[in-house]
């Protein structure tokens, strides 16, 4: 039995592509409305995988819109324990015909990722869960092989560090006048408008090359507290302090007149620890 604390984020709309929320489902070759079935199954999974023995009627009430008439109200739960799951995403859908399919969604409960397969039946614009769901493990992280050690240009890295420190400070502030001092002429970057602050430029990695190179940088951003202290919070509560996150970036830089300037900034890719 999985026991976790707290309910995760609500379900997200899971369908891929550019179909807007609320748009009618595009039928497949069988005529089965896959998009709506996926939404139905994900909402069911939210009700099904969240239960609390102290409030069993809550779960039964949430399940009502999904179950056939006469189905057992807890739909297989024995009424013991507590489980909390969320972060539902589409894994796949297996359509049998115009009325039957099995929708499989990813879910997360604490540190455990799951797949939940939900059989659904469709008729006259409505859905119902047509059988007991099947819970399966979603697997852990892939085994990531180590990359070979990259070549470094120590001279360029030493030259870049003070320039990038100033660039990331200006990028955090989002001041276009300050940013223009550190970017290639004609390039415009928006910045964070003060929503983050540069705590530290942790590393700069530059490969050997010419006047234009793609480099990587790791910075630590700090964030202002997101909410006012709760009544139980104390002055030493770490949750109320300014938090920080290490973030990796790829930057295209150009050397002009002895200084390096940023031409482009993107999120980081695979790196060697």
Automatic annotation (TrEMBL):
- Name the InterPro entries for this protein: TcpC, TcpC_C
A Pfam family annotated for this UniProt entry: TpcC
Protein name listed in UniProt: Conjugal transfer protein
Species name: Sphaerisporangium dianthi
